[in-house]
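Quick one, tokens below. Sequence please?
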């Protein structure tokens, strides 16, 4: 192709990264984002005037190399765009019985404390970390960095034998329970799997590679939070001469037979495109942007989505020395608590993830304040869409504040609140078009991950591609970035710039 205009719908991490790869490859890229700012679920949210913005949802920088890699891939120095802080403390885990344990990057430094606290062998823990980190590397080469568009691509003896060793059909809970007897350690190692709101007995053991990668690679914190990272990507996009349109919701992808030729904005403007990439939610893309009936797309009707979240963000006038950057509050019987959320029941107990960037990053401590996010998993909107009345929201808020005060061993947090902001599943649905308000897209059940997860190429519109959370290889910032690179590679091989198709 002599010149090729690519339109990207949605400026989440998937859309931005796809755009950057394609701009670097020489394509002309226009990105349309419905919100006033890009970033999707990792954009920042304002606090009171004069105080630091909040990170909106995502905050844990798993696979730190990925955040730098996108800049290196497109020939930029990441140091010119953002700075990172490596966390010595990975997670502080609080248990319902009042005990707590801090996992650190340097595992040797907590060997004896670990054995005393969990009554497990540290060498078994290390073996688990090494084995599952190796699994991650294999999964990365075999699955995460590849499109799975042609199943025959997997059918080489080398790949098949690697896949058998990987054993993705074993569940996360089975893999962890087989190795450790301590309920507290099991719960910690499974918490990322639990947090999808899906039974861990039905989630692949590949999810157990997340704590292994965290221990092996550490966690990164971007100075200024994920919001600062989005700004870095946006700046790179503009530096690379991408065209960015915010406040620009797209209503329709116009197709002629099996080819997309244009997009239609909600203000009625048509924009011609040689290739269209949708970073909007997959279900939304099919049913709204392409205006196709879900009934015609069998997997769409049977899709099971992850749970959603209730988020309370606070700007406080006190500092909280008992918290680290990433804190997890685990209750007894985590398995049933989260399975209940996955099947539509509001939690009676409240396991929480508390993000306290003020611990490590003084850009969150403006005018002597501190910043904190509390996240609670809740059912998605497929169960009870009318649940989120003002009364429910107030109830959730009060429970979060009470739990936080208990954890901090103070009477009440209310006197210290300078500003607060909340999000419910409805916000995810209305603001970002997330189907059923699901926080993490398609549920990562073994069946859905192996067979039903949509691939990046649209099967019925030749020049339409998908990128984002529900698309292969799946959800999580670093994983979505990997998927975006795959889409760019697919486009470059199908529509090389010097070859007219
Ligand atoms: C609560 C929560 C916590 C998380 N925590 C972590 C974490 O700690 N670490 C981690 O690695 N990952 C985390 N994740 C996952 C990670 O944030 C996501 O997988 C990733 O950011 C999704 O990026 P995306 O580009 O696929 O989608 P999105 O961020 O949803 O972006 C899609 C974009 O498309 C736009 N859009 C939709 N429809 C239209 C339209 N019609 N026209 C124009 N634009 C449109 C939306 O406004 C949005 O900006 C979390 C996610 C959530 C929700």
């Amino acid at each position: 192709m002599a010149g090729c205009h690519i339109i990207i719908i949605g400026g989440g991490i998937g859309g931005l990264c796809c755009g950057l790869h394609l701009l670097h490859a020489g394509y002309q890229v226009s990105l349309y984002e419905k919100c006033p700012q890009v970033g999707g679920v990792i954009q920042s949210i304002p606090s009171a005037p004069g105080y630091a913005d909040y990170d909106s949802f995502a905050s844990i920088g798993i696979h730190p190399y990925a955040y730098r890699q996108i800049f290196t891939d497109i020939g930029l120095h990441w140091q010119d765009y953002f700075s990172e802080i490596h966390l010595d403390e990975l997670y502080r885990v609080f248990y319902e019985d009042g005990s707590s344990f801090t996992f650190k990057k340097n595992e040797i430094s907590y060997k004896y404390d670990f054995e005393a606290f969990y009554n497990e062998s540290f060498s078994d823990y290390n073996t688990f970390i090494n084995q599952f980190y190796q699994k991650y590397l294999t999964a990365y080469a075999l699955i995460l960095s590849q499109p799975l568009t042609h199943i025959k691509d997997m059918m080489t003896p080398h790949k098949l034998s690697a896949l058998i060793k990987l054993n993705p059909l074993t569940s996360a809970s089975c893999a962890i329970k087989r190795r450790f007897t301590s309920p507290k350690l099991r719960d910690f190692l499974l918490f990322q799997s639990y947090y999808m709101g899906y039974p861990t007995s039905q989630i692949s053991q590949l999810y157990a590679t997340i704590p292994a990668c965290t221990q092996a690679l550490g966690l990164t914190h971007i100075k200024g939070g994920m919001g600062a990272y989005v700004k870095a990507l946006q700046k790179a996009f503009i530096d690379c001469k991408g065209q960015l349109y915010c406040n620009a919701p797209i209503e329709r992808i116009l197709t002629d037979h099996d080819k997309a030729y244009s997009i239609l904005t909600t203000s009625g403007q048509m924009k011609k495109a040689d290739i269209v990439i949708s970073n909007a939610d997959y279900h939304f893309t099919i049913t709204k942007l392409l205006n196709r009936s879900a009934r015609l797309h069998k997997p769409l009707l049977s899709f099971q989505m992850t749970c959603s979240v209730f988020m309370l963000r606070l700007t406080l006038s006190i500092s909280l020395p008992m918290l680290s950057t990433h804190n997890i509050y685990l209750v007894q019987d985590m398995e049933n608590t989260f399975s209940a959320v996955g099947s539509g029941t509001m939690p009676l107990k409240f396991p929480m993830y508390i993000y306290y960037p003020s611990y490590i990053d003084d850009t969150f401590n403006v005018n002597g304040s501190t910043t904190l996010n509390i996240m609670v998993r809740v059912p998605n909107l497929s169960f009870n869409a009318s649940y989120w009345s003002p009364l429910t929201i107030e109830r959730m808020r009060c429970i979060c504040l009470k739990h936080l005060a208990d954890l901090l061993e103070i009477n009440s947090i209310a006197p210290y609140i300078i500003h607060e902001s909340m999000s419910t599943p409805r916000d995810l649905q209305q603001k970002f078009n997330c189907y059923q308000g699901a926080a993490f897209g398609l549920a990562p059940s073994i069946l859905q991950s192996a067979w039903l997860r949509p691939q990046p190429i649209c099967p019925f519109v030749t020049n339409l591609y998908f990128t984002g959370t529900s698309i292969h290889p799946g959800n999580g910032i670093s994983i979505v970035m990997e998927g975006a690179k795959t889409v760019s590679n697919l486009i470059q091989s199908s529509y090389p710039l010097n070859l007219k198709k």
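The longest helix spans residues 122-144. The mean pLDDT is 93.
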